[in-house]
Structures are given as structure tokens and as C-alpha cells.
Fold this sequence. Notes:
Chain A is about 15% helix and about 30% strand. With about 350 residues, chain A is an alpha/beta fold. The first copy, chain A, has three domains: about 5-95, MurE/MurF, N-terminal domain (Udp-n-acetylmuramoylalanyl-d-glutamate--2,6- Diaminopimelate Ligase, Chain: A, domain 1), CATH 3.40.1390; about 110-305, Hexapeptide repeat proteins (UDP N-Acetylglucosamine Acyltransferase, domain 1), CATH 2.160.10; about 315-345. In chain A, strand 21 (about 190) and strand 22 (about 195) form a beta hairpin. The longest helix of chain A is centred in the last third of the chain and has 18 residues, at about 325-345. Chain A is flat, with a radius of gyration of 27 Å. In chain A, about 55% of the residues are buried. Chains in contact: A-B, A-C, B-C. Chains A and B meet through strand 21, strand 22, strand 37, strand 38 and helix 4 of A and strand 4, helix 3, strand 39, helix 4 and helix 5 of B. Strand 38 (about 300-305) of chain B pairs antiparallel with strand 39 of chain C. Chains A, B, C: InterPro entries: Hexapep, LpxD, Trimer_LpxA-like_sf, UDP_GlcNAc_AcTrfase_non-rep. Chains A, B, C: It is an enzyme of class 2 (transferase). Chains A, B, C: GO terms for molecular function: N-acyltransferase activity; UDP-3-O-[(3R)-3-hydroxyacyl]-glucosamine N-acyltransferase activity. Chains A, B, C: Homotrimer.
Amino acid sequence: MSRSLGDIVGALGGELVGNASLQIHRLAPLATARADELSFVAQARYAAQIQTTAAGALIIPAGLRDAAMSRGACIVCDDPYLYFARLTQWWKAQHEPAEAPRVDPSASIHPSALIGDRVSIGPFAVVGPGARIGDGARIGPHSIVGRDAAVGEETLLHARVNIGDRCVVGQRCILHPGVVIGADGFGFAPHQGEWVKIEQLGAVRIGNDVEIGANTCIDRGALDDTVIGNGVKLDNLIQIGHNVRIGDHTAMAGCVGVAGTATIGAHCSVGGGAIVLGHLMLADRVNISAATVVTRSIHQPGLYTGMFPIDDNAAWEKNAASLKQLGRLRERVRALEQRVENNLPKS
Amino acid sequence: MSRSLGDIVGALGGELVGNASLQIHRLAPLATARADELSFVAQARYAAQIQTTAAGALIIPAGLRDAAMSRGACIVCDDPYLYFARLTQWWKAQHEPAEAPRVDPSASIHPSALIGDRVSIGPFAVVGPGARIGDGARIGPHSIVGRDAAVGEETLLHARVNIGDRCVVGQRCILHPGVVIGADGFGFAPHQGEWVKIEQLGAVRIGNDVEIGANTCIDRGALDDTVIGNGVKLDNLIQIGHNVRIGDHTAMAGCVGVAGTATIGAHCSVGGGAIVLGHLMLADRVNISAATVVTRSIHQPGLYTGMFPIDDNAAWEKNAASLKQLGRLRERVRALEQRVENNLPKS
Amino acid sequence: MSRSLGDIVGALGGELVGNASLQIHRLAPLATARADELSFVAQARYAAQIQTTAAGALIIPAGLRDAAMSRGACIVCDDPYLYFARLTQWWKAQHEPAEAPRVDPSASIHPSALIGDRVSIGPFAVVGPGARIGDGARIGPHSIVGRDAAVGEETLLHARVNIGDRCVVGQRCILHPGVVIGADGFGFAPHQGEWVKIEQLGAVRIGNDVEIGANTCIDRGALDDTVIGNGVKLDNLIQIGHNVRIGDHTAMAGCVGVAGTATIGAHCSVGGGAIVLGHLMLADRVNISAATVVTRSIHQPGLYTGMFPIDDNAAWEKNAASLKQLGRLRERVRALEQRVENNLPKS
């Protein structure tokens, strides 16, 4: 199936330059787009590709209008990347029309659960006693909504998502397969060489418009709740410890670990594989590079990094060996400075 | 609901100072506790908060008795953190009375499985041929106990836990959602640029009182078994490779990876995101800091660390660039030392 | 049960030296093997263990024939490790004869799905509309094959594997429990401090003979597909971002993260916990050490490393503190060099 450029601009706005009846069969990356496909140029630095792409039409910023018009159809708009994002949403809706709400007869739904209007519940899903499912929510196959837990309106739990007892998920959230919300936080008191479990009496509260990637885990709080703000985006395989608080619109890439009782501000970003240690505070608008270990609180916005630079192995071995002598090297330099200072004139 | 201080001390001991009929509605952190809530002061270094907390009552060590008594009710005990741990257990039991054992009719239970007394099995669980479920065990919804696998007495498998064929889990264990016990270890023989699978013929044996966090994986052994000792505590999203052995009461934080055939002692700790390479041996009581890569066996107890310190990005870039010249820098210092030695008197 | 040495050599070849009727009860590691067990010596460097092992028989390379014959039965072959791999396959097949194909009546199979011959489908599995399951494929309990997705011939999905809508898995693949194929890639356009979702319109295409470890995730592409080549082996808890391409026969150890649009060549290896940043290109036959962060494209085959060396904590603290002064240290050395150069004769 396809949609015309005219349909697209009709739905999403922007200024159409060129043939409104041109049929678009797919949205495509600039490098591989074909004549019946639509691509976008988000930034001026990709301008050189305008002349080489085979895309049938381009979404471009006003500044590239002249360059783009000379080669064919385009949609001119303020922010092509944002336009493209909205276009993907529209495109998906065109191609995958919403299914009629349906509760699969195999689902196990406790009679005391409150199920809203237009709710879909997939095969083998389990909805526990006292659980509340908001209007228009979709509960995927094998997903579990625990006792007294709540799923907000229009929220989508993909397959095999766990919402633990008493945990709350807001509206319009998307949780991908394998997500575990509300497993016990990792809390034990040491006693004579063994560990005594601290029962985790809190829950997890997740705001609206949150997206959580596959197999990501958010633990319930020990006493208070673990809290995820509105608009937070978490990628796959992330671990969020108990009592963590994440501010609104913060985003984290895959494989991040946030230890217990860390408080992360709003509008932060955390790169893939980074670790935030427990009980730390990160201010708003702090950006952490990939694979960085945050070992202290950060009170100022900015970009913070700590990662060993990659090198060919032989060079790394040499530098890593030297690194283990670094304190000693500083002392040697200090001694040299002293000796030179005592014996040589200032230059 | 609530419990009186008198009830608590009656159940858990300690010396009650103050009003035994004071009703406690919640256990709460010191910083946010209210007048009808109970908190604890584990260590003398939090003593300053005794005067500022609004908690209605406090669990304190004897050394803080005078400071605490002046402000209100308290429970004096030897180890407030341990007392608190046991209190969370008692509190949870009060609030969530044990449900009557129940086998959901939707569960798929092979006729040759041996199911103990007082066993609960949740919706859509699968218990395979020859599996054994011990007395009082609970098998959560969507959990799978494989062929000839065993789950010990009073063990709790939360939702969606996999116990692979022939794997054995001890007594009183807790496995959180998404745990995978007994997937194949990662073993292949190289042959003409391709990988030939080594079937993993071992299993996994897990001791008693082990807790395993959400989405954590423990692979089956290649020939021998992978073995997890008694009282081991593993957080979420941990990977334990084939043939690993972990000693009793060792604890690992989230996102740790332990490669195949590593042997880790008893009473060790491994911080979040750390990696232990394969075929290494860690002695008892070795503590590994977060995000540290263990590249050699460690024979002495102690704390070991290796992580690039975080910095603002500009400073990091400068230092990281210098790091790649570190071997060269040492040579330059050596040359300087030589030249100074040859030309200057000792200072 | 047991098999004789003669049976083994009859099935797998090699030259048998010794008693063909010797019964083997288990394949075992060299260090723990007993008199009725068979072990292997892959490399000459383990030759010393030939005299100490209690194994009843050994698989050895021709070069160790004399050393091995003197102690008992052996199988001489070109590549003992490869022989051993094939032996584990044969051994497993002997001990766990293939079960007759069976579709569990509890499985939810859409009438429009195409199910091949000799297909097994486990309890509570879900096969969506338009899905295709190839001949001889096995779909484990709780596994889900999404709308219009495809699973190739003889492929094994263990329990609780998700194949997202439109995703394609090749022939003879093995996917372990908890694998998520085709969750949405992590794509958002920033807009006024919030994130606008970019719908992920691509899918995932997985080649033949691929093995994917427990709880590993491979995201669907944004526009094009995410592509995994033939013979790729991925361990547990790996994250593969959208639009990643992985070349044939590349292997990755556990806990690796590959960010979006990275292109990794054929015959590469990536060590456990390593991170590959987005949009990078790795040539064929690039090997990345464990816990290394790949921050730039790598065009030459070879081994690349970047990890902070582990040390006892006190030494690490000293060196890490010095590391943060490293740029300054270089400047001090430069100043010393200058001053020495200006004042001292060449030595």
C-alpha cells in the first residue's frame, strides 16, 4: 500500500513542493531510499546527500529548500526530525489500523479486578484481585497485573510484562516484552555472616507517557515507593534499584544500572552501560556518557564522562601497565622538579 | 491498619521506652517518617537526625538511648538494622496473611510430577515430567519447572521463572520474575570459521536460602553442574556463565556478569556492573567494587577496584588523550631522570 | 546408561587405541573425570594432566599419542575440541531421544497461521495471524510468534521467547528463554523538552544457525530491518539496538550492548560487558576485549581493548586520583623537558 505526498501534508502539515499525487510506498533512510520512498534531511550537515539520494521525496528544513527543490519533491518544515517522528506515527496508524478491543477468553481475570472500557487483554494474561485497568488499555499475552496494581488509560503492555502487586503505571505508557515492575529491591541486613531479608514494603509508581524497553527491571521500594516521572524513556535491559527517583523526561540507553536510592533529575540522559551508584543525587539536565560510572552526586548540568579509551590491545597493555604506576610516576616528576629547581636557573 | 509498639516488641523483642499503645501505621525512612510511623537509626552517624525526624517512634542502639528518649518513644536493641529487617518480615506477614495453597486449574502439570503438600501453582504454570515440587513451595503464574527438575520446600518462584530440565533449586529460595535457570552455557568449538555447538550436558544446582533477582540468568554447566551456594543473594539482570561456582552467602549487585568456569568464594561481594572473566578463582571474602573488571584470580581477601573516574567531559577528554600517551610519558620521564642524573648534583 | 568407546568411534570416527568395549558413563572435565568417564585434551599445554587424570579414556591429538597410550584407552583425532563438541551432540541425542512432534491443546494458534510438518508447540504458546512455522520447528511453552512473523525449519524456540510482528528467524536456530526479538528500537525526537516517539517500522531478520542466549533483546529497525547474519552466536542478556547489522559467524559474550545502527563485520568477537556505540562500523575479524567501550569505527582486524586494570582498592584510589591530573602531569613533564633542554648538555 502507499500514500500520496498530498495525503501526508494534509495530515501532518508542512509546505509541499512538487507533485502532490506522488505515491510513497515506504519511509526510508536517506542512503537507501528509492524513487517511491520518502526520506528526511534533519540537519544541514547531511545536505551533501540531497544530491545523491534516490529518494522520491524529502522532508527538509527551510534552509535547504533551494538545494532540495532542484532535485524533486519535498516537504519543507521547521523541524524535519520531529516531522519525521510524527510521520512514523501516522504511517503506522495507516498501516496497522487499531484492532477492536478484545478480551481473550483464555485470560485469567480476577472477578474483583476493575476493567475499563475498550480494554484489550491477550491470551494467558493474568489480572489479579483488585487490579484496575484504565479505559483503552491493552494488556498483552502472558502479561500479569498484580494484586491491587493499576494500569492507566491507553497504556500498552506488550507481551509478558509484569506489574507487581500495588504498583501503578500511568497513562499512555508503553512497556515492552519482559519488563518487570515491582520485583523486590535488593535489601538485606548482615547477621553473623549471613543475609537477613528486608521485605520490600514499597511499590513502584510510574508517571504518564513513559516507555520502558524489553527486559528492563524496576524494583519496588523498601519503605517508600520507587518513582519514575512523566515522559521518562528507558531502553532495554536497564536495572532500576529500589527507592530510585527519576525526574520527568529523562532518557536512559540500554544496559544502564541505577543502584538503590539514587535520585536523578529531570531532562537527564544516561548513556548505554553506565552505572549510577546508590544514594547519589543528579541534578536536572545532567548528561552521563556511555559506560561511565557515576560515583558521586552531580550538582551542575553538563556532560560527564569516565571510560577507558579503546586502543589496539598491545598499546592498551602498555598504557594500562603504566597506569598502575601512575602515582609513582607523579612522585618521580615531583622529585625531578625539585632537583631541577634547586640546580637550574629559571629559563 | 496499624500495630502498637507493644505488639511489635512482643513479637520481636527489644526494650520498649515509651507508650506501648502507640499505634504504628507504617515503617518509614527517617527523613520522611510521620508521627504515626516507626523508623530506625542504625548507626551513630545518623544520630543528628534523631532530633529532626518526625517519626513517632525510633528503633535505636543502646548508645543513642539518651538522645532518643528525650524526644519520644523508642525501641532499644543491639542491632537496629537487623531488628528493622526482621520487623519488615513480621510487618509483611501481618499485612499479607499467607494465602491458602491453591493449584490453579489452568496450570499444566505432568502426571509424573511429584507435587508436595501445601504447594501453590499459579495460572498457566508448567510442571514437566518427573519434576519434584517440595512441600509448601509456590510456583508463580507462567513459571516453568522442567523435566526432572526440583524445587525445594518453601521456595517461592515468582511469576515467569524458568527452571530448566534437571536443575535443582534448594529450600526457602526466592526467584523473581524472568529468572532463567539452566539455559545452555555459551560453548562452541571453532571449525573452519564457523561455530560447532557444544551441547551443555550439566545442570544447575542452587542451595538453600538463595534469592535471585528479576531477569537474572544462570546457565547450565557443560559437563559438570553450575553451583550456587547456600544463602547467595543475586540482584537483577545478572549473568552467571556455565560451570561457575559461587560460595555460600556471597552477594552480587545488579548487572554483574560472571563468565564461564569462574570460581567465587564464600562471603564475597561483587558491585553492580562488574565483570568477572572466565576460569578465574576468587578467594573467600573478596569484595569487588562496582563496574570493575576482574581479569586475574584474587587469592587474598580485600577490596579490589578498577574503574575510570568520572569527570566533566572536557577534563575527561584531556586526561583520556594523555592516557593513551602514558607509556610514552614514562619513557620521557625516564629520559629526563637519566639526563638530570648525569648532569646535576644530588640535591 | 552408558556407551562403549567402540560405539563412539563408530559414530564419530577417530582412531581408537585400547579397549573398544570400555563403557563410558559420562563425558567429564579432565580434572574430575573418573574411570568410567571420557575426557579430552585439546591442546598440548594440557599434556601434563594426561598422567594425573583418572579418566578412563581420553580424546587426544596425534601429537600426544605416545604420552596418552601409556596410560590407557584413547581416541586419536585431528581436533579433539571439535571432536568433543560433536560428541556432546551425539551424546545428548543418545540420552534424550527426540520427542514426537506435539501441539499442546492449550496453545493459542491463529487459524491463519501456517504450521509446517513435524512442528511442536508447547503449552500456552501463542502463534499470531499470518505467522509461519517451518517444518520441524519447536515452539516452547509461553513463546509467542507475532503477526506475520516466521520461524524457520528445525528452529528451536525454548520457553518464553518472543518473536515480534513481521520478524523472521532462519533455520536451525536456537533461542533461549526470555529472548525478545523485535521490541521497538529506542527512537525519539526531542521537542520542547519532551520526547516524541518515532514508530519503529522495520523488523528483525535473523539468519540460519543462529543461537541467542537467555533474556537477550534484538530491537526492530526504525525504517530498515535489524539484521543478524548466519551462524551468529549471542550469549545471555545482550542488547542489540535498532538497525544494527551483525555479520556471519560473529560471537558475543554476555551482557554486551550494541547501540543503534552499528554495523559489525563477520567473524568478529565481542567480550562480555563490552559496549559498541551507535553508528559505528567494525570490519570483519575484529575482536573486542571484555568490558571495552568501542567509541570509534575499527577498520583493521585485530584485538582492541580499553578497560581500567583492577588493583587493590588503595592502589586504585591513588592511581585514579593521579589519572585526573594526567593532562597536568604531561604539561609538567613538558616544562621540565624545556628547562632541561635549555640548561643541560645532551647526555
